Amino acid sequence: MIVAQSKFLKLSAQEEIRCCMKSYCDTILFYYLGHLALSLGNGELSEIGVGGSTFTLTELSELSNRTFFVFDKKSDRLRWYTDTTRWSYWPKSNLKLCEIDSKDLDHRNFPKFSYCHVDGSKDFNITLSDLRFYLNNLSENGLICQDDYGNNKWPTIVDVIKTLENNNEIKIIMVGDSSIWITKPEYYKFWIDTLDADPEFFLLTALCNITSSEMLGQTAKYFFLQSCFNKHMLSNFSESEQEYFSKVKSMNSPHYLQMPYATQSTLGLALEQNVSFYQLSDIYESIKTDDWPSIIPVTKEDIDQLPNWIKTELIKMHGIDPYKQSVRGPNEFKHIY
Fold first, then answer.
1. How far apart (Å, rounded) are the C-alpha atoms in residues 324 and 337?
2. Can you say whether the dihedral through the CA atoms of 180, 67, 32, 53 is positive or negative?
3. Beta-bridge partners for 171
4. If you placed Cys at 139, which of 25, 112, 283, 320 could pair as Cys (CB 3.0 to 4.6 Å)?
5. What residue segments make up the domains of the chain, in order of their start?
6. 69-102 per-position pLDDT tens digit
7. CATH 3.40.50.300 for the 3-224 domain, yes or no
8. 240 Cβ contact list (under 8 Å, min separation 6)
């Protein structure tokens, strides 16, 4: 499967490439979703703002035989990239480095893009312009990743996404630790159906604690990370699937953004890597009404089985995330798995 075969992740784990990167789970998703978008579409690759993810996209360029357009107005960042790329790793990548301000992109002609990454200015109007540029140049079933979504240092990014969503210009597909993946509304169903049916996404869902927003009564459906690796592997996975998990885990390193992170997204900050219990059981008796189930939900499975209208009440009336994990010890509640 594509993630376990990644040269980029292996090079990072071996410290042959060291740069500022997303969290490891975000990086896995960035690589996986990019490969999927390119394999399912015929557009090119593009990025606004050189950074650690530029290396990931370079590998995707080579794998897909697509041109990778890199836009950055600062020549020193472009030089840093060319000086540190180690061309021997991806000799067949096809790059077009463009020293240009993203505000000037609309005045030039470019091909359609299947996968795009926005990591430029955090100014509201510039970010809005960057995303609209890609939306206007998106190939059929194309996908866009916006960096720093949910990062408390850059609240304007959330404002931009909500503006586009409220205008029905985008639909959300995935929310990561510090990234969000969006597409045009007409491509939304294609992506949700594709992910629901993809075997590797099923494995990544288990490995990276990816949850469907449907569990929280949200519509339209999207997926989101819970900010940590799942160290508890389900017993019914096959030996080959277990090997996949081991391979992907082995390519992690301390150089990725570590979660939870004080100025990062609040999505999933309460989730602890080694915890398997949920705080809802602590307060369930004090907030439930007569029409709620009398049995206290303790595990994730218990919470999953609660009616959606109860989950909606927990979120909207009580401001409670039912999946927020507890720090209690293993003798106080039963394990999820």
1. 17
2. negative
3. 183
4. 112
5. 3-224, 275-337
6. 999 988 887 887 777 665 678 989 999 999 999 9
7. no
8. none
